[in-house]
Write a structure and sequence with these properties.
The complex is a heterodimer of chains A (296) and B (251). Chain A has 296 residues and is mostly helical. Chain A is 53% helix and 1% strand. Chain A has a two-stranded antiparallel ribbon. Chain B has a two-stranded parallel sheet. The longest helix of chain B is centred in the middle third of the chain and has 27 residues. The chains are: A mainly alpha (296), B mainly alpha (251). Chain A: This is Ferritin-like domain-containing protein.
Chain lengths: 296, 251
């Protein structure tokens, strides 16, 4: 839940909102830093009406929920279309690799069916392979980022990891926006954990299987995100997937070790361990910026 | 002491706060109700008294359980209980005969899992306190069904705990009112899902998802309610540490 965005929205209508509420401004600065001792946790109570569950339980879906679900649906199309192309490229993935990709593709197809079913007439028009360019050349309008994405197993899995880690962060960022509707929230969480299982497996595949030792995050990552994974599979391009969102206080990078004001690094926990123990959410705009590399 | 012993047996309903430790006074009041002679008390050690209380069929469950409480702190304590259990399990794993003889990759994995779950546990305790809640007491795990010399047994138990953890957080998310806490649960559950994925792949590569955890029509992971979760988790907790989630919100 993004308090600062709400204030900045108010600011658009009333540019002097901060001056009018100078004391509050100071308070919100504290919240921005997550303050001490979970100060931020008090915010939703203070702004209870805005977040109260009672507000969302209306017949039909609120516009906010529709927006979040359609956004999720877009990402599901982005992922499933990519995996489906991968399944159908002869020789790209074989044996167990291909069987696993089919498993993942089926899950994503099911997510699409489910989300379309929930959204009904409010769902976006279906997206197809024509909408995407997984080389990252945006339909040939710029140099490709991943020219061999459909001919090189390593490149394909690197992009798959990036897309799926982004998806996990996107669902995590979206979940608090669904708090007004228990059914939808639970469903989103149930998709979120499946995406996390998928990406852990992509990472395991990239490492060389479950019995392979982790090495460089670029080529042999852990099944979980350690620090910011040194920028991911291809740091020049994938850094934003593991970096901070906007605002960074609410959407820190995956290297974050402070949760709700509690510093987790200490005598018994290293920074790597503390960052691995928690995944981080990402805001919609940052997710879209990452995804747009593959949208024509 | 004779005053305490002469009190009426404790009414189970008056003990809703059993998330706090069982105080000596409570034991004594209770023991009186259960009809244990004062002389026995004087001569028996605390563990024996506990054993006697727990084995007495007249003991109301509310006294020997740990009630996680109600509201958001109840949900957080529910999570804290599961993290205690997981952390205790991995502490045993990394000190086990299995671990000593395990592959380099498995040692690395369990070393990471031990750290992650310990961090989750310690974080939740700190966070509950920092927000004005009361963390439940330290739980006594019961891993007698686990063979810590056996890879099969350790991996099967790890799988059970990780899948359970994901299903538990997924089922409890909607019970949380405060979006900040919901966000925190979201940050933890995907890490549990990553663990589950890898543990399952260690058992049989390619089983990172499966029909036992993911609905094959919707692609949604199947949640468990807190009641369903503790029905499983309580198999790994000693008497006196069995979890009671009856005061948690249901929606």
């Amino acid at each position: 839940m993004n308090i600062l965005n709400i204030i900045s929205e108010i600011e658009k209508i009333d540019p002097e909102v901060y001056d009018r509420l100078d004391q509050r401004r100071t308070m919100f600065k504290h919240f921005a830093g997550f303050g001490k001792k979970l100060a931020v946790a008090a915010v939703p109570f203070a702004m209870g009406a805005m977040f109260n569950k009672a507000y969302g339980q209306t017949s039909g879906l609120s516009q906010q929920i529709k927006d979040v679900l359609n956004f999720a649906l877009r990402l599901e199309y982005l992922d499933s279309t990519f995996y489906n192309e991968g399944v159908n490229r002869p020789g790209l993935l074989t044996g167990q690799d291909r069987a696993d990709l089919i498993t993942i593709t089926n899950d994503e197809f099911n997510h699409i069916k489910f989300l379309r079913n929930v959204l009904g007439a409010d769902a976006i028009a279906p997206l197809t392979a024509n909408n995407f360019d997984y080389t990252g050349s945006k339909g040939g309008t710029r140099a490709p980022l991943f020219p061999d994405v459909f001919t090189n197993r390593a490149t394909f899995l690197a992009v798959a990891q990036g897309l799926e880690d982004t998806g996990v962060r996107a669902y995590k960022g979206g979940a608090p926006l669904l708090i007004s509707n228990n059914t939808i929230l639970e469903a989103a969480l149930n998709i979120h954990s499946v995406e996390a299982r998928h990406v852990a497996h992509f990472r395991t595949m990239r490492r060389g299987g479950p019995q392979a030792l982790p090495g460089s995050p670029q080529t042999a990552p852990k099944s979980w995100i350690s620090g910011n994974d040194a920028g991911g599979p291809s740091p020049a391009i994938t850094l934003p997937i593991y970096g901070s969102g906007n605002p960074a206080t609410a959407y820190p990078s995956e290297a974050n070790t402070v949760q709700a004001g509690v510093e987790l690094v200490g005598p018994f926990a290293t920074a790597a361990q503390a960052s691995e123990a928690f995944d981080e959410p990402l805001d919609m705009a940052s997710v879209l910026a990452i995804a747009s590399n593959f949208i024509k | 002491m004779s005053k305490l012993l002469s009190k009426k047996p404790v009414n189970a309903d008056s003990e809703k706060e059993s998330s706090t430790p069982l105080h000596r006074r409570t034991f004594l009041r209770y023991t009186a109700g259960a009809g244990v002679a004062a002389g026995t008390l004087a001569l028996t050690g605390c563990d024996d008294i506990l054993e006697e209380i727990f084995n007495n069929p007249n003991v109301p469950p509310s006294l020997i359980e740990v009630n996680v409480g109600s509201g958001d702190f109840g949900v957080l304590n529910f999570a804290y209980a599961l993290e205690q259990l997981e952390a205790a399990f991995y502490t045993k794993v990394v000190a086990s005969a299995y671990y000593t003889g395990a592959s380099a990759a498995e040692r690395q994995i369990f070393s990471d899992l031990e750290a992650h779950e310990r961090i989750h546990r310690d974080f939740l305790k700190t966070a509950i306190k920092a927000n004005g809640g009361t963390p439940i007491r330290d739980l006594d795990p019961d891993f007698t069904t686990v063979d810590f010399t056996s890879r099969t047994s350790v991996l099967a138990t790890a799988k059970a705990f990780e899948d359970l953890g994901v299903a538990a957080y997924n089922g409890a998310g909607k019970l949380i009112s405060n979006p900040v806490y919901l966000g925190l649960a979201g940050k933890i559950v995907s890490v549990e899902a990553r663990h589950a994925s890898l543990i399952r792949d260690l058992i049989a590569n390619g089983t990172f998802v499966g029909p036992d955890v993911v609905d094959q029509t919707t692609g949604l992971e199947m949640s468990k309610t807190p009641a369903q979760v503790v029905a499983i988790a309580n198999n790994y907790l000693k008497k006196g540490s069995k979890l009671n989630v009856s005061n948690l919100p249901t929606e």
